[in-house]
Specification:
The structure is a single chain. The protein is α+β, with helices and mostly antiparallel strands. The chain has a single domain, classed as LCP protein (Aminopeptidase, 3-Layer(aba) Sandwich). A 6-stranded mixed β-sheet has the order 9-6-1-2-3-10, sandwiched between helices. Strands 4-5 form a two-stranded antiparallel sheet. It has a two-stranded antiparallel ribbon with strand order 7-8. Strand 2 and strand 3 form a beta hairpin.
């Protein structure tokens, strides 16, 4: 075959042919995801930690505490006195729920190992037998008569309460009616005045005194939440720790403290045993006391403490 007999060669047609038979024409690339090192591992570690922290602070477990205010201290430094303030405090951090119930000091109850007497004498008799056993004796008395599960106590001495108020720079009370010996209006009380306010019974009775004590506690709490009081927190904390005896474990303090902060003063449900829940009575020895009416008291205990 000579050159004149060669088939016609068309370069563009050859290019099209090569393109048409490209072996990679139908190849679908597979996306490759680079592994993000460390993120998944950190997440696996962080989630359980966050879960434990959340469970610690917000688990719906109730903590009950009896707050005791002791009326005096003897010269030898022992806590020989009556618990003239007895408040059951119940805290459930989830909501949070903070309930308070004041018990009249003259409530006639059964005291383990003593017999029937005023509830405020449980601390006194125990301290006579064994120093520093008063809080536990009061705790057992409250548990026996009120049927509540209360593992903890906190005891504050009245003679030290005024130092706490002094560390606060005084406490301001805003009264919508006469109370504690003061007319309606705003008053700034120093430590001695605050103590007198909480204990005043002039022209009133123990029911008013319980109300005044609760009112003062909430006013002090509200004042310490004010940013203007923040610089005083170290001094106030020191004064409280020096005045407080408690068996509440340290690991519970942050949990309970956060619940109180979240509730704030307005979120605290504070009650007292009212006059319908007691019956005035005179003992054979001539002592004027208060007999508990458990049919009236028990529904309140169920409402506040779930028992």
């Amino acid at each position: 075959m000579n050159a004149n007999q060669l088939p016609n060669f068309n370069p563009s047609a050859a290019t099209r042919l090569n393109r048409d038979i490209d072996p990679n024409e139908h190849f679908t690339p597979i996306p490759v995801q680079r592994k993000k090192k460390g993120r998944l591992g950190c997440l696996i570690l962080i989630l359980p930690i966050l879960g434990v922290i959340g469970l610690y602070f917000f688990a719906p477990l109730r903590t009950n505490i009896v707050l005791l205010g002791i009326d005096e201290r003897s010269q030898d430094g022992s806590a020989l006195g009556r618990s003239d303030t007895n408040i059951i405090i119940s805290i459930v951090p989830l909501r949070p729920t903070v309930n308070m119930l004041s018990i009249p000091r003259d409530l006639w109850v059964t005291i383990p190992g003593v017999g029937e007497n005023r509830i405020n004498t449980a601390h006194f008799y125990a301290e006579i037998e064994q120093p520093d056993s008063g809080p536990q004796a009061t705790l057992e008395t409250v548990r026996l008569n009120f049927g509540l599960t209360i593992p903890y106590f906190a005891r504050v001495r009245f003679d030290s309460f005024q130092y706490i108020v002094e560390a606060m720079g005084g406490v301001t009370v805003d009264l919508d009616r006469p109370m504690g010996g003061y007319a309606a209006g705003q008053h700034n009380l120093n430590g001695q005045q605050a103590l007198a306010f909480a204990r005043d019974r002039a022209g009133a009775d123990d029911f008013f005194r319980m109300e005044q004590g609760q009112f003062l506690l909430k006013a002090a709490f509200a004042q310490m939440l004010n940013p203007a009081s923040y610089p005083r927190i170290p001094a106030v904390t020191t004064a409280i720790l020096q005045s407080l005896d408690t068996n509440v474990p340290v690991w519970l303090w942050p949990r309970l403290g956060l619940a109180l902060l979240r509730a704030g003063p307005g979120g605290i449900d504070n009650r007292t045993l009212n006059r319908e829940m007691i019956t005035p009575w005179q003992t054979p020895g001539g002592a004027r006391v208060l007999l508990p009416n458990w049919e009236q008291i028990n529904p309140l205990l169920t409402e506040l403490f779930g028992q």
